[in-house]
């Protein structure tokens, strides 16, 4: 049974709902303010995933250490994904980051 807060067809809002091309544009313009907004939205997306799976440790995603090196690595990863798939929603870049960080392939939910 799907979680009441999250279903297979959960609507998205905010930066995670935009095409990856938007993140690429901000990154390439060196617009740090909006790059950080997108990154924080991605972290919130991961936190939401972890909340939904709070009773299933195998599905939770490690957020890594709060360090500049990890943040930079994550942002470069997101940029690489978004550069390769500019029409995908940014949420899919977040899912790719989740898979990379966890070392597992998680089923990607359908977003509306």
Structural features, described:
With 112 residues, this protein is mainly alpha-helical. It has helices at 20-28, 32-52, 68-84, 90-102, and strands spanning 9-10, 110-111. It has a two-stranded parallel sheet with strand order 1-2. α3 packs across α4 (90-102).
Dominant shape: globular
Rg (C-alpha, Å): 14 Å
- Give the strand line-up of the largest sheet: 1-2
Number of strands: 2
Residue share in helix: 40-55%
Order of helices and strands: EHHHHE
Strand composition percent: under 5%
Instruction: Please describe the biggest sheet, giving its number of strands, its sense, and whether it closes into a barrel.
Output: 2 strands, parallel
User: How many individual helices?
Assistant: 4
Residue-averaged pLDDT: 83
Brief summary of the model shown:
The protein is mostly helical and 112 residues long. The protein contains 4 helices and 2 strands; from the N terminus they run E-H-H-H-H-E.
Please write out the topology.
Layout: E1 9-10, H1 20-28, H2 32-52, H3 68-84, H4 90-102, E2 110-111
Parallel strand pairs: 1-2
